[in-house]
Amino acid sequence: MLKQSLQQKLQVKLSPQQIQLMKMLQIPTMELDQRIKEELEVNPALEEGADEEDNRDDDKLDDQQEEQESESSDDEIDLSDYFDDDETPDYKLQVNNHSVDDDDRETPLGAGRTFQDMLFAQLGMTELDEEERILAEYLIGNLDENGYLRRELVAIANDLAFSMNISTTAADLDTVLKILQELDPPGVGARDLRECLLIQIRRIEERTAETVLAEQIITKFFEEFTKKHYEKIAKRLDLSDEDLKPAIDIILHLNPKPGNSMMETVRTVQHVVPDFLLIVENDELKLSLNGRNAPELRISREYKEMMQHYAKSKNKDSKEKEAMLFVKQKIDGARWFIDAIKQRNDTLIYCMKAIVDYQREFFLSGDETKLKPMILKDIADRVGMDISTISRMANSKYIQTTYSTYLLKYFFSESLSTDEGEEVSSREVKQILKDAIEAEPKRKPLTDEKLMKILNEKGYNIARRTVAKYREQLGIPVARLRKEW
Fold first, then answer.
1. Which residues lie below 8 Å from residue 475, measured CB to CB, with a gap of 6+?
2. pLDDT tens digits, residue range 16-73?
3. Residue 227 — φ and ψ, nearest 5°?
4. Which numeric CATH code is attached to 416-482?
5. Whole-angstrom Cα distance, residue 470 to residue 429?
6. How far is 330 from 366, CA to CA, in rounded Å?
7. What's the rounded mean pLDDT across residues 92-112?
8. pLDDT of 295 above 90
9. Which of 103, 83, 104, 96 is nearest to 16 (CA)?
10. Alpha carbon distance 144, 116 (integer Å)
11. Which of 80, 82, 173, 189 has the most beta carbons within 10 angstroms of its beta carbon?
């Protein structure tokens, strides 16, 4: 049953300009340069270069438009009314299924030869019949980025039967796989780490006692090797540590990810362009926005003159009105874009000054132990903005200082309390933890329990599980895996 009802509700909607401004606030300097170039291409009313005219010219143009609108008659349609025609605006013809906070992420295009391309090239030099070549190419297509074949041969045989109508068996695929494992880089086509290491060891031409022992370790004591239980291996082989060490060194120098061996040749080097520049002069911090790639923008003089000419004209036909509507839209778009760039820069420098002031001791000394605990809310409260604005402002932005170039999110950290009740940054604790691990004896690394005691002795109230969490965030393995000979 259909019913009609009258309802009232309050909604807050962001204008397209506000949405674009938030997105511009989020993009770093490198992307801003590209964004400006795109706008220059689509908006002919926007030009590069400083605006040499006085702002009074713009005010005069606005006054002339207002005067023209006030004197308009029934057969003269002013520009503001012309926006309210029956034509559907472009933005109503577009579908937008994304929220305001969604990030626009584009997948970069890669160039260069992958290790699969190298395998295909090597495959052409092998003696395979047509069916074996098809199977080999299919196997290469199933290798992951590390060069491993993670799928079962039975499952691949089923895929070939259903998708390509090729009848084969797991045994046939295994025969072809053995041929693939003879290609370069050594270890490619392995089904697990043990097989990968064995393939590489067996490819070593010089068969010494050390290589034979290394192969024996991987074959019979692989689990003990992965857990670095070298004492157990030495005891079971009735060898001393010195006798075992050369074989262990051979294994440690093998490549566990042969597919990545080609990545260095095709990797694109991305240079960091700092968004902010900070220098120290006489204990004073001087902050500036890096605008070397962002050109100055102005409104086209030609388009302004067209609007002035139209405002003075008395006879206006429909075509001229349509042309002037286009001109006005482009001028308004150019003005908004210039204002948005200025507002973006003002917001960035305002928020960054708050961060610099908050972390003043660190920026003066460069000592990481001087970093104060700081979260997004701390800066949002200082500048009187929303936390989401601070998050966008700090996203993918870098600051170049006298000491190094830092990602802005580096300065945001949690807080911990000392014995004196003083709050310190977790970044400071991580640095002390890192220093302690670097100074530990390599043959007997410090456990998380011992690291906790060291930090407690220095006055930091921290639990063992927190030490383990910080150690994992630093990318440092457990003590057993840090052990060296």
1. none
2. 666 767 778 888 887 888 888 888 898 888 888 776 554 455 555 555 555 544 444 3
3. -95, 5
4. 1.10.10.60
5. 9
6. 47
7. 47
8. no
9. 96
10. 10
11. 189
CB 262 within 8 A of CB 185: yes
Which pLDDT score is estimated for 443? 82
Q: Is-contact 287 356, C-beta < 8 A?
A: yes
Residue entry with tokens 């240079």: 271
CB burial of 50-82 (b: ≥16 within 10 Å; e: otherwise) equals eeeeeeeeeeebeeebeebeeeeeeeebbbeee
- The set of residues, in sequence order, having a beta carbon less than 8 Å from that of 334 and lying 6+ positions away, is 43, 45, 46, 297, 299, 300
Place of tokens 């604005």: 389
For 197-251, the pLDDT digits (tens) are 999 999 998 889 999 999 999 999 999 998 888 889 999 999 998 899 999 999 9
Q: In 3-state terms, what secondary structure has residue 89?
A: coil
Judged against a pLDDT cut of 60, whether residue 97 lies above it is answered with no
Is pTM, for the whole model, over 0.85?
A: no
Going by C-alpha positions, the residue among 306, 312, 403, 313 that lies closest to residue 359 is 403
CB 55 within 8 A of CB 304: no
Residues forming CATH 1.10.10.60 domain(s) in the chain: 416-482
Dihedrals φ, ψ of 374, to 5°?
-150, 130
Q: How far apart are CA 153 and CA 430, in angstroms?
A: 46
CA neighbours closer than 13 Å in the CB half-sphere of residue 135: 26
Can you tell me the distance from the alpha carbon of 33 to that of 39, in angstroms, rounded to the nearest whole number?
10
Question: What residues have CB less than 8 Å from 407, skipping those under 6 apart?
Answer: 396, 397, 398
Give the pair of three-digit tokens for residue 122: 């090597």
Assess whether pLDDT exceeds 80 at residue 74. no
Which helix H or strand E contains 29, and what residues bound it?
A: helix 29-42
User: What is the predicted pLDDT for the residue at 78?
Assistant: 47
pLDDT tens profile 134-158: 999 999 999 998 999 999 999 999 9
| Residue-wise burial string across 140-159, b where 16 or more C-beta atoms lie within 10 A, e elsewhere | beebeebbbbeeebeebbee
Q: What is the mean pLDDT of residues 300-316?
A: 79
